[in-house]
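#lab-general

N.A. 3:47 PM
ok so I finally got the sequence cleaned up, no stray characters, all 140 residues accounted for. can someone with queue access submit it? mine expired

B.Y. 3:52 PM
send it over

N.A. 3:53 PM
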Amino acid sequence: MKKRISLVIFILFFLNACTHRDEPYWGLSATFTKDGMTLYGKEDRFGMTKMNGEMDEPEFPVEKGRLYKLYFFDNSKDLTGKKYKMVGTHKDSSKTMELYQQEIMGRQSEAKFGLNQKGLWKIVILIEDEEYSSFVVEAR
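B.Y. 4:20 PM
back already:
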């Protein structure tokens, strides 16, 4: 009887260990520097930096709309004329909201948006409804 119980426990443990969980990664994304600017995003793909607000405030202040300069760095694709959308998902509440939407007119654009909850946010950049880049920031 003890062997059966031990075997059942071992099988359950093994099955649990082999179960694949498709949970998104929520680690804060690293910033990078280009042309003397600190950018949020993915190096050689997409970057953004805050253009207005107070110098001593966080890059993503809660419930305060800010203007951000966006950079599309991927030179392998002609993105001019395509539509991009920025979508944010809050880690704790799983609430998703559209942050901004615009046509790409060149390698740079601007977006004005605010995050309405404190905590980690995954920002996804979609071009023509396909994911182009994503990264995690903290709203404070």
